[in-house]
Specification:
2 domains, 13 helices, Aspartate Aminotransferase, domain 2, 388 residues, alpha/beta, globular, 41% helix, four-stranded antiparallel sheet, Aspartate Aminotransferase, domain 1
Length: 388
């Protein structure tokens, strides 16, 4: 199979494909919604899984030094972040880890801030834990999003206890620069607020941008926790592997205690195998994938430039998720998405990520060039109908 060729995923219990088939009642559609990739994971990862399965034993496993070393070396090499092995808390999923950290580090009814529009699971992670949800909308200025630190400070001043940071940001595609993060950290320190940084997209950086992990500041501020995962990077989300990075001993021990209380283990045997192989042998594949995503990004931009010049595709600095402003159509995002389904293409409504996502759609570029072009052709047919 050619690298980055889309797989047929029907019949594999795919949330993106089979889940939508159940809703639509047919297979004549292309989904660009759920944030996983439609091509194969790296062959190095698949080979490691095959080798482990051929061994035959699928018994209880443990987190060994090889696992911790793989995480540590990856962060040093790709993110230039130096951590100690004992700072790592292996976890099954990023959201699971964040939910536990919320419960551990804050109290019931404490206020927690999210920066909208943002990944749609952030809000329930707050409310399911019986915390008070506060929104700090990002500023949409000159076709680009920036943080509103004045509004954020107002929330901190009134007693907010934690900020959930999405870095790089899903869905708007920003890679926060070092100064932005430093300003944010200074603000949190001033008001003694926790920062819980979701960095699941930290390896997916485009167009010569540089990712600055909050991990660079772990020694500078004790109320800082970083959560990472190889799942988006290497298309292994279904295996469930993540890591919490906490430098402050008291914070780390508290999170570990709650993991034990809930009988939450780290990644299972196959997830560990995949993660170690990805971090040890998958770097060349990742670099090639980012070239592929950049090419898909160009295809998307050219399509809208030619077919809908009033549309605005935001600069994609990180992630493989394109954020497209279609507000000139004066059609609600959810309505727009539903109408597109009739043309066999499924994208995500901007309002899924907050009311301030109105007028936008999110398109997943983690697919083959051919799948993207077919999807855009279908969107083009839909636009022709709107114009007529």
């Amino acid at each position: 199979m050619t690298r980055f060729e889309s797989l047929r995923r029907f019949g594999t219990a795919s949330a993106k494909w089979d889940g939508m088939k159940m809703k639509l009642g047919h297979e004549d559609f292309l989904p660009f919604s759920v944030a996983d990739s439609d091509y194969s994971a790296p062959e190095e990862v698949l080979d490691a899984l095959r080798e482990r399965l051929e061994h035959g034993s699928l018994g209880y496993t443990m987190i060994d030094d090889a696992y911790l070393d793989a995480v540590r070396r990856w962060l040093i090499k790709r993110w230039r972040v130096e951590i100690e092995k004992d700072w790592i808390i292996p976890a099954p999923k990023v959201l699971t880890a964040m939910s536990v950290a919320i419960e551990t580090l804050t109290r019931q009814d404490d206020a927690i801030v999210i920066q909208t529009p943002v990944y749609n699971k952030f809000a329930p992670a707050v409310t399911y834990n019986q915390r008070t949800l506060l929104k700090n909308p990002l500023h949409y200025e000159g076709g680009r999003y920036v943080m509103d630190l004045d509004d954020l400070e107002a929330h901190f001043r009134k007693g907010a206890r934690m900020l959930l940071l999405c870095s790089p940001h899903n869905p708007v595609g920003r890679v926060w620069n070092r100064q932005e993060l430093k300003d944010l950290l200074d603000l949190a320190r001033r008001y003694d607020v926790y920062i819980l940084s979701d960095e699941i997209h930290g390896d997916l950086i485009l167009d010569n941008h540089t990712f600055t992990s909050m991990g660079h500041f772990l020694n500078d501020y004790e109320k800082l926790v970083v959560v990472t995962a190889p799942s988006k990077t290497f298309n292994i989300a279904g295996l469930h592997a993540a890591n919490v990075i906490a430098a402050h001993e008291e914070t780390r021990k508290a999170i570990i205690k709650d993991f034990k209380r809930l009988f939450l283990s780290g990644p299972n045997l196959l997830a560990q195998t995949a993660m170690k192989a990805a971090y040890e042998k998958g770097e060349a594949w990742l670099d090639a994938q980012m070239e592929h995503i950049e090419n898909n990004d160009r295809i998307l931009r050219e399509f809208f430039k030619e077919n809908d010049p009033k549309a605005y595709v935001l600069p994609l600095e990180g992630t493989y998720l394109s954020w497209v402003d279609l507000s000139h159509w004066n059609i609600e995002s959810r309505t727009l998405v539903e109408k597109m389904k009739a043309y066999g293409v499924v994208v995500a409504s901007g309002t899924l990520y907050g009311a301030d996502g109105e007028g936008f759609i999110r398109i997943n570029l983690g697919c083959s060039k051919e799948q993207l072009e077919e999807g855009l052709w279908r969107i083009g047919r839909f636009m022709d109908t709107l114009r007529s």
